[in-house]
């Protein structure tokens, strides 16, 4: 039996083996094979990573914008060239299908391409003679050492939501990937260094809550970005904010898809199948509630038949529609919630428990699952299941659908399928959700627009990507200056916000 590889840390531009005594197995979800061991880094190793980032910031902050842009241009090239390798890493440790994993790399690549535009994004303002003889201008400057803490479900895309924009703005960075599938995140960082990031600008430390808490509380870290569960995200936000840091926490969701009876049923149902069951439901933007309005309820049997045809298999099978859940505990939790749905009176139209996949008897497989007659008081509606489970609700009107969705505390994403422009306009103006899809089931915007989840799905007023990300990773200084005619400084006032 070959020795299981141990995942290194990335500190000061070098891969180093942790001195910790605490290691966690990284498991292939389709086979239960141990494919790697990841360290729970020591506090000394975390401090060393931050110290390297702090030292690197002194020079990286003064690197020309053109230099930083060229690094990002090279980085996006390397991402393209290594898409297949990254996707294989994702599938081996996360379980999602290879096409889905390749799509994830593509979404991360989109953010890196956006970071290549930093020379035009990080611009200040200038007003000559704002008052008599007085000029006013702004400086958009990096914060310092920043940190990111990511969930397991997108080990490439989520880090790309964080460090590319941050380092392109002139910050340095410490990344803590999920300990469940760390290899792709680490390799992503290695590619960034190969693209030209100087040693110490990007560091990677692995671990659990102790490392996450250490990042939130470290005095030299200025900002923390988190993407993951509501419980963890709330604690991260509270710890980081209490320590005086800027923080954004993108958290849990309960995303709805409203289908009006005037929608094209072929388009709406096919899109809903992919949104509900793709990635085995393990994404914060998955559609987990279908709200069928009026006669659209008659389409439910057709939808169930489409879901029955989905293929469940290991992610390496390119014909598979769903791979396994990430861990045995994840499978047990999803199956337990399915049973709670039955016990609380929801009608189980399609049961994904007990799926058998030939050659993968130990895989964490759950097939597409559909409940009808779901109410807002049921656990399967209140909880984020994070599995291939769809709740179906019937209402009479679009107004009823909007009121139903607005009563849910989460506000990550919502979709509407219709051919009525007036209905779409009413929906987008009255729904209280941050990201809206019109005839698009998963409304994650392109990377040059910000990720704008709201309400219980988000803490902090600035989200990842787009202009908001540049604002989050920088500080604005306003300079008010007056100079005498012969060049001697008479009065200069600098204010910060």
Question: Can you describe what's shown?
Answer:
The protein has helices at residues 43-60, 65-81, 83-93, 98-115, 118-121, 157-160, 163-168, 183-194, 209-217, 230-242, 265-277, 300-308, 328-343, 379-382, 398-406, 421-430, 466-472; strands spanning 9-11, 14-16, 23-27, 34-39, 126-131, 134-142, 145-150, 172-176, 202-204, 221-227, 246-250, 255-259, 287-293, 347-350, 369-372, 389-395, 410-411, 413-417, 435-438, 454-455, 458-459, 474-483, 489-496. The protein is an alpha/beta fold and 497 residues long. The chain folds into two domains: 9-251 and 465-479, Aldehyde Dehydrogenase, Chain A, domain 1; 255-438, Aldehyde Dehydrogenase, Chain A, domain 2 (3-Layer(aba) Sandwich). This is methylmalonate-semialdehyde dehydrogenase (CoA acylating). One of its GO terms (molecular function) is methylmalonate-semialdehyde dehydrogenase (acylating, NAD) activity. Belongs to the aldehyde dehydrogenase family. It is an enzyme of class 1 (oxidoreductase).
């Amino acid at each position: 039996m070959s020795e299981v590889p141990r995942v290194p840390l990335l500190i000061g531009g070098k891969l180093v083996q942790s001195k910790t005594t605490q290691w966690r197995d990284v498991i292939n979800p389709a086979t239960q094979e141990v494919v790697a061991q990841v360290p729970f880094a020591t506090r000394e190793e975390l401090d060393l990573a931050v110290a390297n980032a702090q030292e690197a910031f002194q020079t990286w902050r003064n690197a020309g914008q053109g230099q930083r842009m060229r690094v990002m241009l090279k980085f996006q090239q390397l991402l393209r060239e290594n898409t297949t390798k990254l996707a294989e890493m994702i599938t081996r440790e996360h379980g999602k299908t290879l096409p889905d994993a390749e799509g994830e790399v593509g979404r991360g690549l989109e953010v890196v391409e956006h970071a290549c535009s930093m020379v035009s994004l990080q611009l200040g303002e200038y007003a000559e003679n704002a008052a008599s003889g007085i000029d006013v201008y702004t400086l958009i400057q990096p914060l310092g050492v920043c940190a990111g803490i990511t969930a397991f479900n997108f080990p490439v895309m989520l880090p790309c939501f964080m460090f590319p924009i941050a380092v392109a703005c002139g910050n340095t960075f410490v990344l803590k990937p999920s300990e469940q599938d760390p290899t792709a995140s680490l390799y992503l960082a290695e590619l960034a260094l190969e693209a030209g990031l100087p040693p110490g600008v990007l560091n990677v430390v692995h671990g659990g809550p102790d490392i996450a808490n250490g990042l939130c509380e470290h005095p030299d870290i200025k900002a923390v970005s988190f993407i993951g569960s509501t419980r963890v995200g709330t604690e991260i936000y509270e710890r980081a904010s209490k320590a005086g840091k800027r923080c954004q926490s993108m958290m849990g969701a309960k995303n709805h898809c409203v289908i009006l009876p005037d929608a094209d049923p072929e388009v709406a149902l096919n899109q809903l199948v992919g949104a509900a069951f793709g990635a085995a439901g393990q994404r914060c933007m998955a559609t987990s509630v279908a709200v069928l309005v009026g006669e659209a309820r008659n389409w439910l049997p057709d939808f169930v038949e489409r879901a029955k045809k989905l293929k469940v298999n290991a992610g390496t099978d390119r014909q598979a529609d769903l791979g396994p859940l990430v861990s045995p505990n994840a499978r047990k939790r999803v199956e337990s919630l399915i049973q709670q749905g039955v016990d609380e009176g929801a009608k189980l139209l399609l049961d994904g428990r007990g799926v058998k996949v030939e050659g993968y008897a130990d895989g964490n497989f759950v097939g597409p699952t559909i409940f009808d007659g779901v109410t807002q008081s049921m656990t399967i509606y209140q909880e984020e299941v994070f599995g291939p489970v769809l709740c179906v609700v019937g209402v009479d009107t679009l107004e009823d659908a909007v009121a139903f969705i607005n009563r849910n505390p989460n506000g990550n994403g919502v979709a509407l399928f219709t051919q009525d422009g007036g209905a779409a306009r009413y929906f987008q103006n009255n729904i209280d959700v941050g990201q809206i899809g019109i005839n698009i089931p998963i409304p994650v915007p392109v990377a040059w627009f910000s990720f704008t989840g709201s309400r219980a799905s988000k803490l902090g007023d600035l989200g990842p990507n787009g202009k908001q990300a540049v604002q989050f990773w920088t500080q604005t200084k306003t300079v008010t200056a007056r100079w005498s005619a012969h060049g001697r400084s008479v009065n200069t006032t600098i204010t910060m916000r």
